Amino acid sequence: MEKVELNPEVVVELTTWFVDVVLPVPIPQLFTYRVPQEMNDSMQVGMRVIVQFGNRKVLTAIVAKLHQKPPQNYQAKYVLELLDDAPTVTAGQIQLFQWMADYYMCNIGEVLNVALPSGLKISSLSKIQLRPDAVLEGKQLNEKELRLIDALQDDASLTYDEAAEVLGVDNVYHLIKVLIAKEIVLVYEEVREKYSPKIVKKIRLSRDYLMKTDLERLSKKLEKTPKQLDILLAYLRHVPLLRDWTLNENGIEKDFFHKNENLSVSSLNTLLKNGILEEFEIVVSRFAEYAHIDFPKMQLSPKQRETGEKVMDLFFNQQKEVVLLHGVTGSGKTEIYIDLIQKVLAGGSQVLFLLPEIALTTQIVARLQKIFGTQMGVYHSKFSDNERVEVWRGVLNGRFNFVVGVRSAIFLPFDNLGLIIVDEEHEPSYKQYEPAPRYHARDMAMVMARIQNCKVLLGSATPSTETF
């Protein structure tokens, strides 16, 4: 507890908080850091923080516990920065990470490293540079020190590894420490967040020309410059604002003009420069709409309906946590899955649909998206890191209540799961071999179900021996 005197008569006691954090390192323990006073009211379990680890590393950590007990064996360093306004990892996920570390005999930091998309981790790069006020005259410098100084004069800054390569040594820490003491170099951390949203540039007509009379006057004016008039007419064909002027607000993607060979890019730039058109940016989803394939309206056969009802009976009347749907290929398991997913979503719960890598094809995703629309997210190892971050955040903020994905989708921050479906549960691609944790997604689905009190449906034409 710290005391702050505002005046001789008023003393304010400030609570000192500490956090135990999970670091993405293969060390079997949590680490305790001190929370700066200005972060006291904001800090929550599951938030990302930047902390210094060792003498020069800066890492992203996840807050696992908030308390008031200082560590006994070392002086706690301060948290450097709080990255989130709300938790990025749920309490249930932290519990799952710890269970995986214990069961698969690895460290919770290794689980975190695999679970969290790289775009949610901060990359830290220790760099050295010459001090702007460095004075070399009169200082005793050996050959290696002079070589490093010359390299810094050429490159402005170097990482530790680059400095070691320049000098042909494995360890440059002592040398840099000496140069810091001689006030010749300084060390800084270049920290950058990898995730960046997808930005689309768009074009719209200036609000000065939305009225019919103003637009007619503009068209007459542009008759002297036919190429500029072509741009305007192309815009009006795609954005019929004379019929509904509010359509102008959304505009049209700038790429439309660039891709059209009949339109002049320089004329577009002139219209922008003169304020007739205006450019703006929007943040959009990275997920392109899948091909619009017309699927026949789903209608369950009597046998499928009977099977679905039996599964529901096993789940809710007989209180079975896990059910195996054993049916040959082409017997209609997917239709039963879809019917169950619709029922669970209608009840307000989330659904995770796991597929093997080879089964997650455009056609199955297109079919599911046709039915579930924008409430469905896709989590695939072949997607970019930014796309995976988008799904992660979509699950957190409630945008995606239903996710179809491969084995790594079990790490997503669900907090209200009602059903997990593991299709083709016998497939070996559900097992991760490298790196640790060497988990099996089917087995982890059952652990998640116990943590979140939800149901698991396993599907296969050839069930694995242990499942059967």
Unreliable residue stretches: none
Oligomer: single chain
Report the top-level CATH class of the largest domain.
Answer: Alpha Beta
Name the average pLDDT.
Answer: 88
What is the level-2 CATH architecture name of the largest domain? 3-Layer(aba) Sandwich
Strand sequence of the main sheet, in spatial order?
A: 14-19-18-15-17-16
Radius of gyration from CA coordinates = 29 Å
Helix content: 25-40%
SS content category: alpha/beta
Name the CATH superfamily classification of the largest domain.
Answer: P-loop containing nucleotide triphosphate hydrolases
End-to-end span in angstroms? 58 Å
CATH topology of the largest domain: Rossmann fold
Described by the principal axes of the CA atoms, the overall outline is: flat
Number of helices in the DSSP assignment: 14
Strand content: 15-25%
Instruction: Count the domains.
Output: 4
Short summary:
This protein is of the alpha/beta class and 468 residues long. It has 14 helices and 19 strands.
Give a quick set of tags describing it.
5-stranded antiparallel beta sheet, 19 strands, alpha/beta, 468 residues, 6-stranded parallel beta sheet
